[in-house]
Amino acid sequence: MKVKTTVILFGVFVILLLFVYLFEGPLSEKRQKKTTEVSLLFPDFEKASATTIEVKSPTKSIVLDTKGDAWLISGTDDFTADPQLVDNALDTIAGLLRDTIASKNPDKQDIFEVTPAKGVEVKVSDEQQNMLAHFYIGKTASDFFSSYLRKEGSDEVLQVGSITATFDKDIKAWRDKTVLTFSPDTVTQLLLKTTTEEIVLERDEEGKWMITQPVKAPAKNEMLTNILRTLSSLKALDFAKDYDSTTYELDAPQITVTVILKDQEEKRLLIGKMDEEKSQYYAKNQAKKTIFLIGKFQFDTVNKTVEDLKEEEKKEEPAQADEKSEVTPPQVDRAQTDKPDEAQE
Q: What are the residues whose beta carbons fall under 8 Å from the beta carbon of 220, sequence distance 6 or more?
């Protein structure tokens, strides 16, 4: 009986091993190959070949073109598009699958809003104007987490992830809001110039910050870390209406921040007047034409005096007597103690 049970269990074990092998081996590779080759909506799409993105909706039309390593928004004063948003859009196209078909009836395309008249039309082409991808994004599905999509030339209406917001943006939303970018670890000097003082800070070989002007004193390393973290990935909240530095008091800024890197490259930020209505400050990377608006928190982070930056001196606490030390009793004059009381005599 025990031998029979052992044989059965061994057989079950062998079958399980066979299933694991098939599903994790040949069958798994076959499924992955099928997903890659068959289910991709644009199997020949190459992100690196894209040079133009056109997004057209019933209310607006946006065209993004490459110029060197940057993406520019066509029809503007060379506004730079946010590279992360562009990458996200191209990655989304590369990952589109045709695995959930909602309809194949061309009469229902209008219902799903995947037509040129109602949908968001997306075209991506290469340098030779060859079309890499062309599709229409329709209305949001009933689950509110997905959208309908139709490839140009196809009657299939697909249900895909919620991608409308990835493509349907206005000019301001597409614009690059990056004011400054650098690695905080590569900074060797920081200069803060306000209307009242100029502060120079230097990082030593151990990574500690020192104030070298207008006084020589150790600096608060934690505060400097916070300042550099803010500056190294500084993003704007909005943009100025034009490029008039005088109007925004950037020709005579209230704060000038200069970051010097190990390779002696300088990053300079100018902060001008405050927009009273928005409670934001006009700012400009000196190397860029664009004038940005940054938040009050970002302004306060860099608006420091030398007293704010100085490391507080540690005050020595007075020595305290040992509580366990013995207290010497007062000396008693034994001659007076042993003297007989004359009143008792």
A: 209, 309, 310, 311
The structure tokens 């699958």 sit at: 97
**Can you list the residues of the chain whose pLDDT is less than 70?**
1-14, 16-38, 314-345
Q: DSSP string spanning 192-212?
A: EEESS-EEEEEE-TTS-EEEE
In the chain, what are the domain boundaries? 47-174, 184-309
One-character DSSP codes across 233-284: T-B-SEE-SS--TTTTT-SS-SEEEEEEETTS-EEEEEEEEEETTTTEEEEE
Cα angle 152, 117, 114; round to 5: 45
- How many angstroms separate the CA atoms of 345 and 340, rounded? 8
For residue range 139-162, list pLDDT tens digits in order. 999 999 999 999 999 999 999 999
The predicted model scores a pTM of 0.75
In the beta sheet, which residues pair with residue 266? 260
